[in-house]
Specification:
Layout: H1 16-22, E1 30-34, E2 40-44, H2 51-56, H3 67-75
Length: 77
């Protein structure tokens, strides 16, 4: 079992063997959850290959929309 020490700023380093096994990269987001007084769970936040498709969807427009039209529609709302 890998060990890690809590710093003065409450930061914890994920041990190298765990990082390599999971393929965790710098800048990735993780969630932290206290299960009990003695247990903390660290989970990788779900990754999305193309985050914009979650918001926009995958359907393509039939025509290109000029920037001016987008700006006009945004201003009218």
């Amino acid at each position: 079992m890998a060990r890690s020490k809590v710093t003065d700023k409450y930061q914890v380093t994920i041990p190298q063997e765990v990082r390599e096994k999971l393929g965790v990269k710098p800048g990735e987001v993780v969630t932290v959850e206290a299960l009990s007084d003695d247990e903390i769970v660290l989970r990788r936040f779900p990754r999305v290959a193309h985050p914009l498709t979650v918001f926009i969807g995958e359907r393509r427009l039939r025509r290109a929309v000029p920037v001016e039209e987008v700006e006009e529609n945004a201003e009218s709302r």
